[in-house]
Amino acid sequence: MLEGFEAMRMEPELRCVKALLSPESGIVDTHSFTLSLVGQAENSHATFSYNTVVLSGRVEEEKMHLFVAETGSFESRCEGVVAELELIPNLVVNSAGLGAQALAKRFHGLRHRFIPSSHYARGCYFTLSGAKSPPFDKLVYPIPEEGGLGVHVTVDLNGLVKFGPDVEWIECRDDTSSFLNKFDYGVNPQRAERFYPEIRKYYPDLKDGSLEPGCSGIRPKITGPGQKAADFIIQGEETHGVPGLVTLFGIESPGLTSSLAIAEHLANKFL
Ligand SMILES: Cc1cc2nc3c(=O)[nH]c(=O)nc-3n(C[C@H](O)[C@H](O)[C@H](O)COP(=O)(O)OP(=O)(O)OC[C@H]3O[C@@H](n4cnc5c(N)ncnc54)[C@H](O)[C@@H]3O)c2cc1C
Hints:
Blueprint: E1 2-3, H1 4-10, E2 18-19, H2 30-43, E3 52-60, E4 63-70, E5 85-87, E6 92-94, H3 100-104, E7 107-108, E8 119-128, E9 152-155, E10 161-164, E11 168-170, H4 175-179, H5 192-200, E12 211-221, E13 233-235, H6 237-240, E14 245-249, H7 259-270
Parallel strand pairs: 3-7, 6-14
Antiparallel strand pairs: 1-2, 3-4, 4-5, 8-10, 8-11, 8-12, 9-10, 13-14
Flavin-adenine dinucleotide is lined by residues 53-54, 95-99, 103, 123, 165, 217-219, 251-257.
């Protein structure tokens, strides 16, 4: 724990009363990270099937049967698409993110009471423009807000300064929409008006007009606004009774940081 003056000596643009210093926290290039995992998996003889969608599943003779089609045949509609392939794997891990609940509901034989409700919270980022150099050297996290970590600042590996993500609860019309990922990932420039006061709580010298819309992402939540934040849900046969099926729900942040630990847990427990 640092006193405010100690933290502000390290980061002169920062304003705070106290701070927690985490000297070993950092960032990774997420794209390179996932690509390197793909490379390692392929070296260990894994096969990836891109542009392929799992339409549904059925439990038959103690095995999950998956019905699979090409994504192209599926993008604009959902019903009436005929499976091109039936797979009977030893282990199925439903890690479909935003579509995990919608997919689980298409697994005949999995009782719906094991499928948590779905809630969605968009998180938008704004980037800092016009600064000669990044105002901060370290990542700065304010006090968390409901549904998210608070509008924090990240300096990515290319030196781009990003603020976000905020929390915007959004509706998803129905399971088909989440199954097809029909979410709006647009960043409304007017949301900047909410960012300025949030950021100025810890970076008072943020200049008017310096924020530009960046990217957004959507959190697959299992509790809604006003409810207590939930942990990840990992369910195997011992919970839902379906042999050879593991379901992952609510894998929101820090799901990427936790991905190797989750994979290790699944491998130890279910393989
Ligand atoms: C704004 C934001 C900021 C975040 N920041 C961080 C952070 O700083 N640190 C961190 O650790 N985590 C962070 N996260 C969380 C992290 O991105 C997720 O936890 C992680 O991506 C979850 O990985 P996943 O593989 O479970 O799901 P996803 O990455 O959502 O992947 C699911 C995959 O399943 C596929 N799929 C869906 N349905 C089907 C189907 N029927 N058939 C076939 N494929 C299907 C999808 O196309 C997708 O490729 C953040 C998330 C958001 C939204």
